């Protein structure tokens, strides 16, 4: 067992990044239900993200999505963030919303479109230079809808070529982190469909290329914590995109669908050293709130990650190892479940109190009047959204 | 085996309905890629549907979707259709795109919203009266995203009440056909998630209430032909919404993802008497074309259903029954596979030729110049789409 | 919220049935790993089941499986149980292990085999008469492995006929409870694959025919609590077969794979009145322990059901309903999660203490020396198992 | 398009290996239905495999499974095979049926058991030396059933160590081919659950370590042809284990559940050069016949692979590439479907005729009287089976 003080220190040091797009409107292909008070520009998104940090104390960074968060002056945006107590985190590229990308971006059969897509990725590295971001997060919607539509193998060649060019452009501590997704929006093949594909490409790129595990991007039944443990062992786990789902990729709040799974994932993170800052594993939320209010949705999500982390830290590692060595199936399971079944909410409330925060972030945010204020103030203009 | 002449007669008599929304723009939550020449109003959609019938000879009706296809004068729309050689088919209600429906329509906890939703359904019956449509097709996006969000059971009470009111409004030959869907856009519970739920409600409503099987709306691995056989045995199969998918509901062309499954479904249809017009089973397409051209996408889909039907009709029913009675597993399977492995394209080409149609509908449509004409003519105005 | 005293009363009154086959050897098709001390006959199985009751206080009945638990004198067996403080529960029929059943039992194309299968079911009712059991639990492995192998619809006719004959044989309070299963051992069609099929048959049979929900028998992603809520609303939920799984039907301890799901299920049970004895919902375990010791595996499973039930009882129903009525998505979810996140282990320990039991049943059983005793005593003879 | 003569040459040169265990009894955990005439020893299994080759002409090798096929004199077994016109193929290790392996073999926490398991693997290489086999096929049932049961990461360390020792023992052309499986018999974690894990280990082992794709061993919805294309591009596709399934790993005949998928897989094999003997891709069946007769089940399976291969060879590669380059989604799909929809049975019959074989292998085998002969002769002794 980690000592009580080590548990507390680890929880105090935890950092969970929220995504700028979580604060804008989102929905399904059937309908986007607009909410009042939604940000109209990246500055307002960062203001909302700063609220999540203000009430939780563990969400000091916010990911951007280019071009959704394109601004003329990134230094000004970074300063705006700093003024509000937060920083710019990862830069997310978007090569799926231009009409040119209907049949793919970096894997498109048309070299002109591939060039355009790669140029956008390189532009994102420029943004990183401007904002001081460490991570270029790449997710490709590329794939095909019908058997025969394109050559599966040739698309891998094109992908490898594009990644190599972008990786070569990185400098210093910058990283390329590559996300995989089982399917959607491509419905037959996806060019980076699983961790194995992302891993194989990252391996060839080099040390600063790592895999992003989005918890919602797997085939039914996939054991995600196995992948986490495996990538940590290989030194190739770059980041998490946290969210949860009952079916396909649903953007539900992390921990909402299967809190036990989130705990098991965090247990492997703890086991594999992923909480150690030296591991450079980034913990990000990547989820949108279609029907629930957006800032509270992020606050609750951050709290869910905290609770799972706290439980994972409470696992009695010595007792667990002893039971495992003895082949005591029920005993080893019981050690894990004992931690999971512990109610850690009081512990986290106490830590918040020590940090000068309200013990209940949800209630404190509700009391703050921020929600009413943005509803009143953010009138006119165009609400942020995916622009699909 | 059905005699050769009976096979030909059955194929000549087949009718496959295409949906008006297949001709408009559609996409995923990530992006809708607009296509040139897309209809701007219901009249243009019907013109496109008439093309599918003109080249295949077996698609004489087109489903409407209200309010997407709302017009001031339904008689004029029906006459327009008749002038182009087609008819109005089923009326599809839409209670998922008004802001009021964020937490549900007929199952919403708010009685005002439920009233509004039911009123829309009743209005759809008015449209049926105006167009002479037989079928009111109901699909509800209603459900919840989070455990606890609403009371699962109370929502069933509300659903039952709404359905009863609408069913009571039907007259003459009109039917209420109820569609189920595994998930999406609701991500935790869906109020009509499976055939059992739809069946139970239809049973209580009465004889003119039947179940719609949408081939894309099932849990992974579900044996759809079993459901088809079961519902036919119970006299409760109302209609098909055809499409196909490799993952979740993807709107791929029917038969594109698993042509053998489509064949097995049509085999159960033939076995259960579903091709007999007296069965009143409606065969509809319900699929959108996100990256492929829309009219050819419908033509190919209609042809896929025809090919599967032809193969199903070629199954040697006597040999199959004999092998089944004998417990000859491989022999019975071989009888089925023999029909499936037969290339029926020449037979269908011959039937088209006899009907005065070009033997290859795809090539004939391409030659017709219609695609170029609508691209040139349909400039300006607003392209039809889902309006999500 | 149920008052604290009502919560305690409900928990004290809970009854969870364990299955005789859980105490014998079991495994996968790859290997059955025999354990020491396993029972050699039904009397020894009941002795083991009595241990589970002795340490938990809530497992007073044990299901039998015929012919695995066939004895010459059922009155003697019942007396043996009574002497040990337990009773005989449901009778499970077995029509899947005779060579005759290779292509099906009650749905077999061969009428002789169907007759044999139905006769076995009727014999099981005789056993019920002899043991005083209320429930005949029917699970059919019947189905097909290959398309075309048999006629899906004809098999339903045969199934309906068999069920009707058996149902007619019941007397008094006896019930026929029908289990469904997604697949296995049949690999293409299963004759009762889902709740809808079981429900439709039970509806035709009559009031004393009800559906069994085995938590491991669903397609991936199926929302089981929806089914529970639906069947309770229809008065057709007969019983649970509890177990858990990460993939297909795996016989893991209930609550081991997804404790949150078990809680959601119990929440719907509480909501729908299923804990009320008048509802006649039976709570049974149906799981085998392949690698973990068998009696502790059952004790842990019983405790898992207790903990989920306790949490479900702690849900603040008034607050939940208020949030649901208000359309407060996060608020309603929070009410549910508050109960789930509560550590109920101390409460249950207290209740055990009040009942004169050790607060920790696992530790108490380990201390009891029973495991060592049966290892020493049960030497020679043939260990009980599935006999596959 | 491959020229007609090249298509014929490729089909004549195809080699499909059948597994010795397909000829013995097999079943599910519920029941093994014994069949008459089943082999009693490895010599009789090889005799049956020789029948499959005699009637299809493309199944000249047979895989062994150690210890199921353990004999005193492997040279004698190899000579027996040669006398019957076939050869010994891959050697399959079995480290899942000894009581010691309950909690794992090469990943077991107990070093003694790991040693025993590795020794068995080394012994299998001895058998390869004795039989002249090229391939050591490794499938590990290793994994865990419960969260916490063992350390996921430590098990990878142990696995890597075991593989390295075995790989070092190989000589000459010998290969280690590593199979992955989604789940079963382990129900929580599996130590080699997906192609990514197998690939990562093979990469570290070296050039003679390659991945085995078992078509039944994937999560629902997995795009297997993508994996095939990817591994071929990486030079890491070692072999196929062919079979098919509707649900989990079901051992149905390859091509029986989804013939279109098999075609798509063979299309990627053709595209990626996998039919070229220099690629060293082995095509093996790995399936058991639970309810269908075993030799005909293998013959039909071999024919199914042949038919899928023939269709894949008929794809007009130039037309396909042109449509792909042009972004013609429907056109490219149509090229593929044109080949799939072609009835290739006459072509294959013709090729058989040219090779001096009966055009219909199923009918010819049935006429041969072999089935009746082995039923009469193989009386007494113990039928081969899995011995679970």
Automatic annotation (TrEMBL), chains A, B, C, D:
Domain Xylose isomerase-like TIM barrel: 49-249
Matches recorded under Gene3D superfamilies: Divalent-metal-dependent TIM barrel enzymes
UniProt-listed SUPFAM superfamilies: Xylose isomerase-like
Keywords: Isomerase, Manganese, Metal-binding
Molecular function as annotated in GO: isomerase activity
Keyword Metal-binding: yes
Ribonucleoprotein found in the keyword field: no
Protein's UniProt name: L-rhamnose isomerase
Organism: Yinghuangia aomiensis
